[in-house]
Amino acid sequence: MTNDHGPSLLGPDSPYSDVSIYVDAVAAPRVVARLRDALGLEDNGPELTVGPLHVTGEPNDYATGRHAHPSDFLQWPTGLECEAHAGTPDEVVQAVTALACSLSTVGSGFD
Hints:
Helix content is about 25%, strand content about 20%. By secondary structure, it is an alpha+beta fold.
């Protein structure tokens, strides 16, 4: 659905809204820490900044336990909430790509 989100809370004039990335790992802080290490970022607490992308790890409010197929991403317990507060479309795409690629390299052994 287009235009289903309002403007970014981090930058009211930003044309970007948000994206959620679901991760099959229980501890959101561990996911964020491992991504921080994989991306070579400095520690800034429970959040990441990847280029123009602001990322926080949160419990997946949509998860209802393991009542669906194990590969149903809505059952994965952690959500990475991502918001672009600035940057060109190319910079945002590069940041999301770096985040997704890092998830694929650190994905095993979260729990």
